[in-house]
C-alpha cells in the first residue's frame, strides 16, 4: 500500500474512534444527566439537581429520614425535601445545599446520599463584600 | 512587616520581568552574560518569594490579626500545627505558595542545566519568568496576601474545621508541587520548539522534574482521598467532585507524557504528541488551580466566588493559543525520525496506553464541564453524577491495568509472537489460576468488572515479579552475589526500569483496592439508642454509651466540644471498641445565644476506623442534640452576661446531660474490603517513582566526567 493512502486510512480510523468516543460521551451524559434547577422551578415527575437554601427552622428528623425545606437563594418559595443517607458536616439552616431527586406530589424525594453542602460562607470571600 | 512582604512581591515581579527580558535578549543576541544575568535574576526572585512566604508564615504563627488573611483564616486557639497550614487554606496564601514553589523549582532546574542546553534554557527561563510574573501580578493586583486591616480584630475566624486534618496539612502543597513541577518540562518544551531543537535533549534535562511532579501530584491526590475517607464522614474516598477531577486530569495526561517521552528518547518518534501532551498537562494544572478558586462549578471545594477567575481564564487561554500556535508552526521540525515497525512492540503499546490515558482524561473532562456544556447546548444546566463517571471510566481503567502488565515487557521496535508468548506464558498461566481461585473462593463472580480487574491485577503483579526474578537470577549467575544483594544491585543499576516496574505494581495494587472496595462495600445508616445492636455484614455493632469531652479532642484539632459514642464491634470471636465522635466548633455569629454559639457552629465527624489488610470497619456518629435544645435556650437567657468561667461550667453541665441521657444518634457503619490496599498501592507507586527519579551512580559519574572534560576543553582552548 502506498504511504499516503496508508496515512489517510490511519487518519480516518483515528477520527472514527474520536467520533465514537465523543458520541458515547454525549449520549450517555445527556441521558444520565439531571437538570439543575431552583426550588421554585421544579415540576412533577422530572429528576433534578436542586440548588437552594435550607429554610430556617425547617429541619426535622423522622426515623432515618431527614426532612427540611429549601428555597431559592433570593426568594421565599420553598419545597419540602425528604432525604436519607449521609448528611455532610456543614449542613445547617440557612446554608446553600445541592441535592438531586424527583418531585413527587409536592414533596421532593431526594436520592440517597446526594446531599452536598456548599462551603460555609464564613470561609469564603462573600463575607468581605457584605 | 506587611509592607516588607508586599515590597518583596513587587520586587520579585520586577525581577521576574527582568529575567524574561534579559533571557530573551541573551537568547536572541547569543550573549551569554545576559543569559547568566537572567538566570541569576530567577534565583533572586526565588529568594524574594521565600522571604515573602516566611513573613506570612510568621504572621500566622504569632496570630497577627492586623493581616486580613490571618484574621480570616486563623485564630489564637487554632493549634500551632494548623496555624502553619492555614496559610495555604486561603486563596491569597495559596497563590503565594504557587509562586514560591515555582520559583524554587525554576531555580533548581536552571541551576542544574546552567552548563547544558545553552539554546533552550534561556527561553525556558523566559517562560518560567512569565508564569511567575503572572502569579505575582495576581497577588499584587487582586489578592494581596499582605493586605492589612485598619482595625485589627481581637480574635480571628479560625481555620475551617474541615481542614483540620494531618492529610490536609500536606495535601495542598503536594498538589501544588505537582502542578508547579509540570511547568518545568513545559517551559523547556516551549524553549525547544522556539529554538527548533526538538530532539530529546529537553526531555532528558527535565524528565526527572516531570517524574517528581507526577509523584507529588499522585501523592497529593492520594492524601486528598485519605482525608475524604477519614474526615468527611461519608465513608468514600472519591466522589468525582470537580476539584478532585481537576487534580486527576493533569496526573493522567502527565502519566501519558512520562511514557511517551521514552518513545521519543529511544526512537525519535511522537514529537508532536509529546509537545502537545506537556502543554496539555500544564494547561490542566493551571485549570486545576483555577477550578478550586473560581466557583464556576458547584463543588464542596469551591471556596466561594473568587476575584481572579477571569484573569486565570485569560492566562489559560493565552497559554493554549500560544503553545498550540507554536506547535503548528514547528510541525516541519517535529517530524518523526522513525516509523512504527510493528504493532507488537513497546512503542505501539505505549501509544495505546497514551490513548487510554488521554481518553480517560477526556471522559473526566467532559463530565466535569458537563454543566457548562449542557447549558451552552440546551440552555439548561444539567450535571452527571458519580454513576456516570463510574460507568465510563471502569472499562478504560481495566484496559489500562492490562496494558500496565503487557507494555513494559515488550521489546522496542518489534516482538515476534513467539517471544511474546514465551514472556507472557508464566503470567498468563498464573492469572488463569488466580481466576479459578477467585471464582472458587470469593464472590468476585458477582461483578464482572471486578473479576476482570482482579485477574489483570494478578497478571501485572506476576509480570513484575517475573521481571525482578529473571533479572536477579541473571545477575546472580554473572556475579555470584547473594539474592538480596543481587536484587538491590539490579534495581540500583537500572533504576528507571525497575522503579517503573515497582510503580506499575503499586498502581495495580491500588486498583485492586478500588475495585474491591467499590464493588463489595457494605454500608448501613441506622439510628441507635444506648444498648441497641445492629448487624452490618458479618459484624455486630453495639452502642454501649455516649461520650462527651470538653477541649482536647483526640485529633488535636482544637475543638471545644466533642460528643461521641463508645461502640463495641464483634465479628466471630473478635471484639473491639471504636470511638467515633463529632467535634463542635464555636461560632462568632452574634445572632446566636452565648451558649448556643458553642453548639451551632461548624461540626466535623471524627470517624473511627479499624484498619485491616482484608477489610476496614468504618464508623461515624452524628449525635442528635434535640434533647439539649431547651436547656441550651434556657442557658442562653440565664447566662448571657455571666463570666466565661461560669459559661464553661454550664457547657460542661450540658454535655454531661447529653452523656447521661443521649437521644438516639445516627450512625453510619461501613465494611469496606481491601480498601487499605489503595493506600499501600499508592505508597508502592510513590516508592517506585522515587527509585526511578533517584540519580543513578553511573549518571553521577558520567556528569562528573563530562564536567571534567568540559573544564579540560576550556583550559586547552585557553592554552
General description of the model:
The complex is a heterodimer of chains A (130) and B (719). Chain A is an alpha+beta fold and 130 residues long. Chain A has helices spanning 3-32, 126-129; strands at 34-37, 47-54, 60-62, 65-71, 78-83, 96-104, 107-110, 116-117. Chain A has a five-stranded mixed β-barrel. Chain A starts with a helix and ends with a helix. Mean pLDDT of chain A is 77; it is low at 120-130. In chain B, a hairpin with a 2-residue loop joins strand 5 (561-571) and strand 6 (574-578). Chain B starts with a helix and ends with a helix. Chain B has helices spanning 2-29, 32-61, 68-73, 80-86, 91-112, 120-141, 166-181, 183-195, 201-231, 242-267, 271-294, 309-329, 346-368, 370-378, 386-406, 417-441, 448-479, 483-493, 495-519, 629-638, 644-660, 676-693, 697-718, and strands at 382-383, 522-528, 533-536, 539-550, 561-571, 574-578, 581-584, 603-606, 608-610, 615-622, 665-673. Chain B has 719 residues and is of the alpha+beta class. Chain B is 64% helix and 10% strand. Chain B is built from 23 helices and eleven strands. The A-B interface holds A 21, 24-25, 28-30, 32-36, 49, 51, 61, 63-64, 84-90, 92, 98, 100, 113-114, 116-126 and B 72-73, 91, 157, 160, 162, 232-235, 298, 300-307, 359, 362-363, 366-367, 370-371, 374, 380-385, 387-388, 391-392, 525-527, 587, 600, 602-605, 622, 624, 626, 666, 668. Strand 1 of chain A pairs antiparallel with strand 1 of chain B.
Amino acid at each position: 500500500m502506498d504511504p499516503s493512502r496508508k496515512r489517510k486510512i490511519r487518519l480516518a480510523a483515528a477520527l472514527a474512534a474520536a467520533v465514537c468516543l465523543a458520541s458515547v460521551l454525549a449520549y450517555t451524559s445527556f441521558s444520565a444527566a439531571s437538570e439543575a434547577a431552583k426550588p421554585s422551578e421544579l415540576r412533577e415527575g422530572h429528576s433534578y439537581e436542586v440548588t437552594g437554601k435550607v429554610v430556617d427552622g425547617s429541619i426535622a428528623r423522622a426515623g432515618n429520614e431527614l426532612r427540611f425545606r429549601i428555597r431559592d437563594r433570593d426568594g421565599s418559595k420553598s419545597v419540602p425535601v425528604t432525604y436519607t443517607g449521609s448528611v455532610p458536616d456543614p449542613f445547617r439552616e440557612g446554608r446553600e445545599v445541592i441535592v438531586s431527586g424527583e418531585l413527587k406530589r409536592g414533596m421532593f424525594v431526594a436520592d440517597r446520599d446526594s446531599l452536598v453542602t456548599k462551603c460555609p460562607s464564613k470561609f469564603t470571600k462573600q463575607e468581605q463584600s457584605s | 512587616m506587611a509592607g516588607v512582604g508586599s515590597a518583596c512581591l513587587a520586587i520579585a515581579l520586577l525581577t521576574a520581568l527582568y529575567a524574561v527580558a534579559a533571557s530573551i535578549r541573551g537568547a536572541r543576541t547569543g550573549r551569554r552574560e545576559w543569559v547568566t544575568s537572567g538566570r541569576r535574576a530567577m534565583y533572586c526572585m526565588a529568594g524574594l518569594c521565600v522571604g515573602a512566604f516566611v513573613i506570612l508564615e510568621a504572621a500566622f504563627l504569632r496570630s497577627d490579626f492586623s493581616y486580613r488573611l490571618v484574621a480570616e483564616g486563623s485564630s489564637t486557639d487554632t493549634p500551632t500545627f494548623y496555624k502553619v497550614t492555614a496559610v495555604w487554606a486561603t486563596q491569597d496564601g495559596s497563590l503565594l505558595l504557587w509562586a514560591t514553589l515555582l520559583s524554587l523549582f525554576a531555580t533548581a532546574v536552571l541551576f542544574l542545566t546552567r552548563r547544558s542546553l545553552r539554546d533552550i534554557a534561556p527561553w525556558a527561563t523566559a517562560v518560567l519568568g512569565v508564569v511567575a510574573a503572572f502569579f505575582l501580578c495576581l497577588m499584587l493586583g487582586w489578592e494581596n496576601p499582605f493586605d492589612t486591616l485598619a482595625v485589627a480584630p481581637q480574635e480571628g475566624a479560625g481555620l475551617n474545621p474541615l481542614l483540620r486534618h494531618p492529610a490536609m496539612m500536606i495535601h495542598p502543597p503536594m498538589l501544588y508541587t505537582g502542578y508547579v513541577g509540570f511547568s518545568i518540562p513545559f517551559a523547556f518544551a516551549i524553549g525547544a520548539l522556539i529554538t527548533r531543537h526538538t530532539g530529546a535533549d529537553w526531555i532528558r534535562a527535565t524528565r526527572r522534574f516531570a517524574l517528581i511532579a507526577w509523584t507529588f501530584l499522585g501523592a497529593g491526590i492520594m492524601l486528598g482521598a485519605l482525608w475524604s475517607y477519614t474526615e468527611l464522614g461519608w465513608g468514600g474516598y472519591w466522589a468525582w467532585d470537580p476539584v478532585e477531577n481537576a487534580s486527576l486530569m493533569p496526573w493522567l495526561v502527565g502519566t501519558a507524557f512520562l511514557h511517551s517521552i521514552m518513545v521519543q528518547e529511544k526512537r525519535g518518534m511522537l514529537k508532536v504528541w509529546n509537545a502537545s501532551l506537556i502543554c496539555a498537562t500544564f494547561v490542566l494544572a493551571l485549570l486545576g488551580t483555577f477550578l478550586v478558586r473560581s466557583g464556576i462549578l458547584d463543588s464542596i471545594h469551591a471556596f466561594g466566588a473568587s476575584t481572579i477567575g477571569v484573569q486565570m481564564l485569560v492566562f489559560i487561554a493565552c497559554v493554549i493559543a500560544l503553545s498550540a500556535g507554536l506547535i503548528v508552526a514547528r510541525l516541519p521540525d517535529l517530524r518523526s525520525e522513525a516509523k512504527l515497525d510493528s504493532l507488537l512492540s513497546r512503542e505501539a503499546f505505549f501509544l495505546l496506553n497514551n490513548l487510554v490515558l488521554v481518553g480517560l482524561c477526556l471522559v473526566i473532562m467532559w463530565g466535569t464541564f458537563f454543566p457548562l456544556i449542557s447549558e451552552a447546548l440546551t440552555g439548561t444546566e444539567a450535571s452527571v453524577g458519580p454513576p456516570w463517571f463510574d460507568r465510563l471510566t471502569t472499562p478504560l481503567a481495566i484496559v489500562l491495568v492490562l496494558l500496565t502488565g503487557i507494555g513494559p515487557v515488550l521489546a522496542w521496535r518489534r516482538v515476534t509472537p513467539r517471544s511474546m508468548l514465551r514472556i507472557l506464558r508464566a503470567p498468563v498461566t498464573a492469572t488463569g489460576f488466580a481466576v479459578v481461585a477467585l471464582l472458587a473462593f470469593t464472590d468476585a463472580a458477582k461483578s464482572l468488572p471486578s473479576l476482570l480487574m482482579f485477574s489483570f491485577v494478578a497478571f501485572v503483579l506476576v509480570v513484575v515479579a517475573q521481571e525482578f526474578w529473571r533479572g536477579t537470577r541473571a545477575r546472580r549467575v554473572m556475579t555470584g552475589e547473594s539474592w538480596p544483594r543481587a536484587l538491590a544491585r539490579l534495581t540500583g543499576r537500572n533504576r528507571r526500569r525497575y522503579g517503573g516496574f515497582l510503580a506499575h505494581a503499586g498502581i495495580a495494587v491500588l486498583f485492586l483496592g478500588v475495585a474491591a472496595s467499590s464493588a463489595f462495600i457494605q454500608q448501613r445508616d441506622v439510628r441507635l439508642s444506648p444498648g441497641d445492636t445492629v448487624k452490618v455484614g458479618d459484624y455486630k455493632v453495639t452502642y454501649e454509651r455516649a461520650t462527651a469531652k470538653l477541649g482536647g479532642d483526640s485529633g488535636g484539632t482544637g475543638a471545644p466540644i466533642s460528643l461521641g459514642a463508645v461502640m463495641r464491634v464483634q465479628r466471630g470471636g473478635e471484639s473491639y471498641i471504636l470511638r467515633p465522635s463529632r467535634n463542635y466548633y464555636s461560632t462568632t455569629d452574634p445572632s446566636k445565644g452565648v451558649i448556643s454559639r458553642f453548639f451551632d457552629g461548624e461540626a466535623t465527624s471524627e470517624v473511627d476506623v479499624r484498619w485491616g489488610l482484608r477489610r476496614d470497619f468504618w464508623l461515624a456518629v452524628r449525635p442528635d442534640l434535640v434533647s439539649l435544645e431547651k436547656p441550651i435556650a434556657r442557658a442562653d437567657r440565664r447566662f448571657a452576661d455571666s463570666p466565661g468561667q461560669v459559661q464553661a461550667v454550664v457547657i460542661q453541665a450540658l454535655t454531661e446531660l447529653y452523656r447521661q441521657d443521649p437521644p438516639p444518634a445516627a450512625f453510619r457503619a461501613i465494611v469496606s474490603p481491601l480498601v487499605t490496599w489503595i493506600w499501600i498501592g499508592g505508597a508502592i507507586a510513590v516508592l517506585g517513582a522515587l527509585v526511578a527519579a533517584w540519580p543513578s551512580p553511573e549518571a553521577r559519574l558520567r556528569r562528573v566526567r563530562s564536567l571534567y572534560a568540559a573544564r579540560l576543553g576550556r583550559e586547552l582552548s585557553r592554552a
